[in-house]
Write a structure and sequence with these properties.
Blueprint: E1 8-14, H1 20-31, E2 36-38, E3 47-54, H2 61-64, E4 69-77, E5 79-81, E6 90-93, H3 102-110, E7 114-118, E8 127-128, E9 131-132, H4 133-138, E10 148-161, E11 164-171, H5 177-188, E12 192-202, E13 205-206, E14 211-212, H6 213-218, E15 226-227, H7 229-232, E16 238-240, H8 243-250, E17 255-256, E18 268-272, E19 275-283, E20 286-292
Parallel strand pairs: 1-14, 3-12, 16-18
Antiparallel strand pairs: 1-3, 1-15, 2-3, 4-11, 4-12, 5-6, 7-10, 8-9, 10-11, 12-13, 17-20, 18-19, 19-20
Helix pairs in contact: 3-5
Length: 295
């Protein structure tokens, strides 16, 4: 069993059923810390990878939102639901799926790839006039959400068993796979909703390395499921600090960046040995610390 030295990032494989907050509640109880946050929620019916930021690593949550997410999913053709997944009430049925061809399915999938303006589902946690959209929808209110810029890097058909279609998709943060299933069905003229959803990865992090929720409750956590802050941010540009630079950064002062701007908007991880000292942003030829982590 891995020893968890805080701060750390823990990879958890959420099963179908519990909410993302349920997973945090369980982790708080069994890891003996209340300071836990996650980097992106999963609906109760969905399963797969959750990244839990433990201790001071909760301050890193926003950076993981930059990473794309990969999902496997199954879309059920022939019915739309108000939640756009299998948990909702059916709002439209069609038998047109019976004459859909494999070529039409591939064409519809291709049409969803790339950047687009996606209309989020009414049953989402986005706020409408200060209230969660799902609260308004459940109360029978009208929910009008503005389209949001998203990008679908991959949307591949991996299996066809009509009326079900298996999918593999990689998407930018903020993309709703439920809404992709909705738009997929509409492109085919028969409607669709999401039957299953599993998050396979978040950037370089894989669900195969995650701890099962039952094993977490039993305290049996594999070493591969525990990531140090330095390793967790290794996908960012990394700058190794000298002792003098470390002292400057720890006092919140900026330091020179001899490499200068590289055209990237990504923040920079500043490290000393195996320790994450700070995350900084580039300003001309200097690095300005945004988040500083003291020993």
């Amino acid at each position: 069993m891995a020893e968890i030295d805080l701060p750390a990032i823990l990879l958890v494989d959420k099963p179908e059923g519990p909410t993302s907050h349920d997973v945090i509640r369980i982790a708080r109880r069994h890891l003996d810390t209340r300071r836990i946050g996650h980097t992106g929620t999963l609906d109760p019916f969905a399963s797969g990878l959750l990244l839990l930021c433990l201790g001071a690593a909760t301050r890193l949550v926003e950076y993981f939102h930059l990473l794309p997410k990969t999902y496997t999913a199954t879309a059920a053709l022939g019915a739309e639901t108000d939640s756009e997944d299998r948990t909702g009430a059916v709002t439209r049925r069609s038998e047109a799926w019976r004459v859909v061809t494999e070529g039409e399915i591939e064409q519809a999938a291709a049409g969803l790839r790339g950047p687009s303006a996606q209309v989020p589902p009414s049953y989402s946690a986005l706020k409408v006039d200060g209230r969660r959209a799902y609260e308004v929808a459940r109360a029978g209110g009208d929910v009008a959400l503005e389209p949001r810029a998203v990008e679908v890097h991959r949307f591949e058909v991996t299996g066809i068993r009509l009326p079900e279609v298996d999918l593999l998709t990689e998407v930018s943060t903020g993309t709703y796979v439920r809404s992709l299933a909705r738009d997929f069905g509409r492109a085919l003229g028969c409607g669709a909703h999401l039957k299953t959803l599993r998050r396979e990865s978040i950037g370089p992090f894989r669900v195969n390395d995650a701890v099962d929720l039952l094993d977490l409750e039993a305290g049996e956590i594999p070493e591969c499921a525990v990531i140090s802050p330095v390793d967790a941010l290794s996908w960012l540009p990394v700058r190794t600090l000298t002792p003098c630079e470390t002292a400057e950064i720890e006092h919140g002062r900026r330091i020179r960046d001899p490499h200068g701007p590289d055209g990237s908007d990504l923040p920079v991880a500043l490290v000393a040995g195996e320790r994450l000292v700070a995350v900084a942003r580039r300003e001309a030829c200097e690095l300005q610390p945004e988040k500083v982590f003291h020993v």
